[in-house]
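tool=predict chain=A
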Amino acid sequence: MLAPMSSLFAELARQEAANARREVDTYVREIPEFAFLDINSRARAETLEYARWLRRRTVELAPDGASLTDDDLAHITSMGAARSDAGMSAASPRRILRVHTALMLRELNEAAETQRGGGIDELMRIMAWFTAQGERGIGAYRRGFLTVLRRRMPYVAQVALLTRALLCDDPAAAELARLVEMDLADHYAVTVVRVPAHPLDDRDLESETEALVKAHQVPVMWCPADDGGGELVALLPTTGDAARPPADPDEIPESAPALLHDLALAVGRPCAAGTAPAPRARLADALDRARRISRAAPLRRASAAVRPYTFADVFVELAVADVPSTDHWLRTLARHLEPGPDLLVTLDAYYGHDMNRGATAAALNVHPRTLDYRLRRVRELTGIDPGSTHGVRVLTAVAVRTLSGAWR
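tool=predict ok
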């Protein structure tokens, strides 16, 4: 048996129509995708009726703390499906939720202010109901929206939505993961692969993303740039759990080299990759770090075993990029090396093989005496011995900054 309606709930019932109209008007004003309601009277009437129904059910159920019924949740699901079927974007549920929550809180506060003593007991009761049942309602709406979205959106686009949801810690990520049949991890290494523009290669890089997704089954999205290049962002599961960070803050997931190799082969361009691990709730910060690392890392072709660089690999170059005077000095040294054939590539290989002459010569496919000649030439042109401590400190940064394309 329903409890007698308190004055607070009675006030909410009296204001039902006005509050519903205000919600619809706010949608039109603040969410561009609802602009069609100004020219589609039928759609506006349906949206208004749904807003009234939701408030009516709140007033009916909240006084006794009763839960939304299966029929209620089915109705909410159908509304989510209808809006998805109308072509609203995947970002719209988040915007709608923000507006709806703000308006409901405003309505509750306005109703409470009309009551003697502020209606505190009733206000606390309805807030508790709104918190618990709101989560169920949001889930039902999202399920309806995403179920229809799955039918009208290509698989690779669905995976891109999941990637974006994870990067902004959107609760919709769990439902999106179920739709694309991927398990969520507690920790990821956000890996950004930078692909510069290339005037001789007009292949559609977005089309390559689908093959990567299907082959590696990880959240991936392609972010094109205006110049024809762009970035591939991949979320690679790492070790650790929700309560314990990864054992190595610069851990490179085992799956990374294979994914990067496949991408480099697919695009046919030199790539640079940066990676940064983080718990699932903090992937946005990891994305920023991985992006900065990728921009500091040298560009590599697939044949050069593309791998993601970590902060530890390029921390010097990241610091240099933030000090223009130092960066200018290193760039001047790089210009001194331009007359020598392949000197920067030689330095990169030399330091990449821990200054081992035999391994470096083999990697460059040259005779050790040719390598020795090139290193002497570096010393002649810069006045710095590549094998000295000073040489390691300075010339590694010169080589990496040049090969990253930072000075083009």
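The CA atoms of residues 300 and 306 lie 6 Å apart. The chain has a mean pLDDT of 85.
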